[in-house]
Design a protein that fits this description.
Strand content: 5-15%
Largest sheet: 2 strands, antiparallel
Helix content: 40-55%
Number of strands: 2
Number of helices: 7
Strand order of the largest sheet: 1-2
Radius of gyration: 20 Å
């Protein structure tokens, strides 16, 4: 492939579409990163949720440290990520989502800087493969 052909292919490269497709393929990772943070009681901005109350830990000794937002697992299971050519959204479909974001803030849904970096590393690897494939067509 010559320089002119490479230039032509780069000009028609559907980059936003390729990024959205790669993020969609990484949705399970994105959702798992969010769940991992919550298991530590951490928000996307790396601040921590308050500690469980003394009454809670007295009657539920397994609940100690920062609130994890985990009771039945429904909220964790409902965490989803959606990507398109314009945005990446992390949300939850559980009925308690609005109550939880009102009480603990919107940043319970999102990625901390270290998890965002992990996502960007995986995304870069996927994009290299996808762009190379597109250019070879």
């Amino acid at each position: 492939m010559g320089f002119l052909e490479l230039s032509r292919r780069l000009n028609v490269l559907p980059f936003n579409y390729i990024v959205a497709e790669a993020l969609d393929e990484l949705s399970k990772d994105i959702e798992d990163y969010n769940r991992e943070q919550l298991k530590e009681g951490m928000r996307a901005d790396e601040s921590f949720l308050r500690n469980y109350s003394k009454n809670t830990t007295k009657y539920n000794p397994e609940k100690s440290g920062h609130i994890k937002l985990y009771d039945t697992g429904d909220f964790y299971a409902s965490i989803i990520s959606e990507a398109n050519e314009v945005f990446l959204l992390i949300n939850a479909t559980d009925w308690k989502t609005k109550l939880l974001t009102d009480e603990f803030g919107d940043s319970i849904l999102g990625l901390s800087p270290p998890n965002f970096k992990k996502l960007m590393d995986k995304l870069a690897d996927k994009l290299k493969v996808k762009i190379a494939y597109f250019l070879e067509q």
